[in-house]
Write a structure and sequence with these properties.
- By secondary structure, this protein is α/β, with parallel strands linked by helices.
- The chain has one domain (2-310): Ribonuclease Z/Hydroxyacylglutathione hydrolase-like (Metallo-beta-lactamase, Chain A).
- The protein contains ten helices and twelve strands.
- The protein has helices at 42-55, 71-74, 89-94, 101-109, 118-126, 200-212, 228-250, 255-265, 276-286, 296-310; strands at 2-5, 8-11, 22-25, 32-36, 60-65, 84-88, 142-144, 147-152, 155-161, 171-175, 180-188, 217-222.
- The strands form two sheets. The chain has a seven-stranded mixed sheet.
- A hairpin with a 2-residue loop joins strand 1 (2-5) and strand 2 (8-11).
- The chain is globular, with a radius of gyration of 19 Å.
- The protein binds zinc ion (ZN).
- Residues 20, 70, 72-73, 185, 221-222 line the site of zinc ion.
Length: 319
């Protein structure tokens, strides 16, 4: 973990599916910390707990905030059996529909799945994680609707529900004293964004909420810490997807064709360009076009089957 601004420490996951960030917030007094997201596996969760104990000897993580319901941000909670779990009411409601640990374990254990299948894609991208000892996430013990103000050892942390955006109930945490925002998956850096079906116009509005805050430091759910200009750039990217998707939906372009053309024309040089399918699927659904897979595993199957056609990256220009 690295201290980004005083009292805010990031465990940076890295690029690719599942390598999420976790953020530890320590107070100016007291020994009760807050952890914003807790990564994907029991092993990662235990490493976070160990690191928190090193950062403030004698302290412990009293509260975990889930930025949203996805497993890569919640399953590490098994390492914190005594912590309170805070989430938006919409996130708590969405959690039972998430991919469950035994299902994922079963898919990953499948011998030699056919090339282009959802199982092969999941094994390629998730096979290196060890999900032993993960029964699933701990369920929230405290929920809130629009905003919840927390006191973390004298440090004010505002939880704002900005969903539906990336998911149904995304939470961001704003720490005014540090001009810092913990953005969760409202912000992806270096990889294309993935949508789990919430309207993309809501996601653009969520980024407007972030940009309206008096903040200079933005910690994404995946990727490195960035400043305001990257948040604005990411907003432009999503707005571009929305405008393009609305045009393609109204002219009846098939979803996969629209995604392939988008990637061929606009070369961001980011990882996982196949995820553009999920973004356009959300725009198509908002435009009233039905018929494409929408459930998590269904969308994964779709991008697995066609991912190779959608990967139009030129030489990487990673930010
Ligand atoms: Zn994530």
């Amino acid at each position: 973990m690295e201290e980004v601004v005083p009292g805010v420490w990031i465990a940076e996951g890295g690029p690719g599916w599942g390598w999420s960030n976790a953020v530890l917030v320590t107070g100016s007094s007291g020994i009760d910390h807050l952890l914003f997201d807790c990564q994907f596996t029991a092993g990662a969760g235990h490493a976070l707990a160990d690191r928190a104990r090193q950062i403030v000897p004698g302290g412990s993580v009293g509260r975990i905030v889930y930025s949203h319901a996805n497993p890569d941000h919640t399953w590490g909670s098994v390492a914190f059996p005594d912590a309170d779990i805070v989430a938006s009411a919409a996130t708590a409601a969405e959690m039972p529909a998430e991919t469950q640990a035994p299902v994922l374990r079963r898919i990953l254990a499948q011998p030699d799945p056919p090339a282009g299948s959802g199982a092969a894609y999941l094994q390629e991208h998730f096979g290196h994680f060890d999900f032993d000892g993960v029964p699933g996430p701990r369920i929230p013990t405290q929920t809130y609707k629009d905003r919840l103000d927390l006191d973390v050892g004298g440090r004010e942390v505002q939880l704002l529900c900005v969903g539906p955006a990336h998911t149904a109930g995304d939470t961001v945490a704003y720490i005014p004293s540090q001009k810092t925002v913990l953005a969760g998956d409202i912000l992806f850096i270096d990889d294309h964004a993935v949508s789990w079906g919430a309207p993309l116009t809501g996601w653009v509005r969520a980024l407007d909420t972030l940009l309206a805050l008096d903040a200079q430091c933005f910690i994404p759910g995946h990727g490195p810490v960035v400043g305001r200009e990257h948040v604005a750039g990411f907003r432009t990217y999503l707005e571009t997807v929305v405008e393009y998707g609305q045009r393609q939906a109204s002219s009846g372009t098939p979803l996969l064709e629209a995604a392939a053309v988008f990637n061929a024309r606009r070369r961001y040089g980011w990882g996982l360009p196949e995820r553009v399918v999920t973004l356009l699927a959300a725009v198509y659904r908002e435009a009233g076009v039905e018929g494409e897979a929408q459930a998590q595993l269904g969308l994964v199957g779709l991008i697995a089957a066609h991912g190779a056609d959608l990967d139009c990256r030129d030489s990487p220009q990673r930010r």
